[in-house]
Amino acid sequence: MPKTPDYFHGKTIVITGAASGIGRATALIFAREGANVVCADIDEDGVEKTVEAVNKLGAQSLALTIDVTKRAAIEDMAQLALDGFGRIHFLFNSAGAAIRRSTFLDIDDDLLERTFDLNVKGTFYAMQAVLPHMIENKFGVIVNVGSMAHRRGGPNTSVHYAAAKGAVVTMTMGVAREFATKGIRALSISPGPIDTAFAAAAATTPQVKQAMLNDIPMQRFGAAEEIGELVLFMCSDACQFMTADTVYVNGGGGWR
In this structure, are residues 153 and 159 in contact, taking their beta carbons and an 8 Å threshold? Predict the structure, then answer.
């Protein structure tokens, strides 16, 4: 939570991947705090539902159907956010996926390229789109979603995804250090299994799900809201010396 009451009131956050899961949970948490929430996702119906939920909390919001793998679409997203609210204070890059599970030798060019387009280029484009504005205003916080997979390598199922998330974590560190004197902070979050559609897709059988749970000392999946609350803290004035790090949220484990 912020140190200053109403810290987020009237400030604007842009969230990619806002139609579901961690992105949607984070949108609702920022709405609870009175922020303006720009919700972007390729899923038009899902992002509209997120905005409806945000509006019910009394916050201002904007629904954008955006493909984050397209630079022009991301640039439009940033401009529409500025047109709607005048400032972008925070960016949360939640859009990402493993596309599909695959053993290493079965990863083909298409899977590798699509995985990096979504997870790496989507994050890269969004940061490039908002950073000039943040630098001009001498303030901005960027939070990107990494993964425990980048530490564990994703053997047997998702080396392509682990490699992409490793790139996200490294890129976040570089941006944080390059712009640290410009009023910018950049951080990443590396979750273990979170109770979302993404985790459900990974738990292909009851046996696989149990194996995932066995690797978590807390013996449960995380909740999307638990990640959203961490994003809120990272963006707040309670941790202004925090930048360039990735925070692992995994119940003590984090199977991938």
Answer: yes
Does the predicted model carry a pTM greater than 0.85? yes
DSSP for 203-246?
A: --SHHHHHHHHHT-TT-SPBPHHHHHHHHHHHHSTT-TT--S-E
Catalytic-labelled residue, pool 7, 125, 161, 248: 161
Amino acid, single-letter form, for residue 116? F
Strand partners, 142: 91, 186
Judged by DSSP in three states, 188 sits in strand
Element spanning 88, H or E:
none
CA distances from 95 to 115, 211, 256 (A): 11, 26, 18
Whether 161 is catalytic is yes
Token pair of 114 as six digits = 């699509």
**pLDDT tens digits for 45-96?**
999 999 999 999 999 999 999 999 999 999 999 999 999 999 999 999 999 9
Determine the average pLDDT of the residues in 189-207.
85
Residue ranges of the alpha helices (H) in 69-108? 71-85
Alpha-carbon distance values, 198 to 96, 144, 154, 193 (Å): 9, 17, 15, 9
